[in-house]
Amino acid sequence: MSHDFASSKCRVPSQLRNWIPALVVAVTFLTFLPVLKNTFVEWDNSTLVNNSSYRGIGWLQLQWMAASFESGAYQPLLWLTYSLDYMLWWMDPFGFHLTSLLLHASSAVVFYHVALRLISLARTSEAPERAMTAEIAGALAALLFALHPLRIESVAWASGRADILAALFFLLSTYGYLRANQLTEDGRATASWMRVSVFGYVCSLLAGPAGLVLPVVLLILDAYPLRRSAGLPSPFRSDTQRLYTEKIPYFLAATGFCAVAMMARIYKPSVAVFYDADIVDWTLY
Q1: Structural domain that includes position 142
Q2: How much is the pTM?
Q3: Which of 207, 222, 221 has the alpha carbon at shortest distance from 253?
Q4: How many helices (H) and strands (E) would you count in the chain?
Q5: Are 84 and 54 in contact, with CB atoms under 8 Å apart?
């Protein structure tokens, strides 16, 4: 399977293969470029402007990120990105919006590579013109994802970054899973890419709940286009039980995140109300 994918790629000029994802990034970045002129809006006030708890990379800030249920959600990775923004830009909204835009452009190029692999798995012809068509189709799919109106709020509001960050790691996890299952002849490479996939999924959950359904998505991919099972794999069939066994880390991560998310709904915190040189205080109520 991996040989077929590699051979189809070599039929497309290498320079063109490099320029297509660059074009996806450029179009995405230029389309959303006006968001860099945005200021903080009302939605950003409680999350960023009036919340001083995330400002810094000290132990107290990291402790707050790891324990915070701010806005009824558990998102330590999201807060870490805001903290890095503050270290680089202080409270200049330009920097916060720039980071969100760069993350979204990164998601677009990862989506392109995921789409390209899915198309290569689904097609039956290995003709050179088909390979070029796959590249173009992958680029169009990535642009449809990146420029869809549903992306506007997430990119335009500094406080909307959770969906962007979760989507980026969701796509990285999916890409790692596809790579792992196209390298079945190399056990070490397969294991490495599976670890990348699980790590990406955990990071996605730590950024936001948007990617929670990934284990189910992977089972669907097993059926098509990976064709690892005839239809959706049944947990009662011995020949497909392995497909569920390898998903155990994903389901464990999802279960753990759901438990934490329920706690976040119960213990909805206020933001840190005092910020001194050495003290960060917050209250659960």
Answers
A1: 2-281
A2: 0.85
A3: 207
A4: 13, 2
A5: no
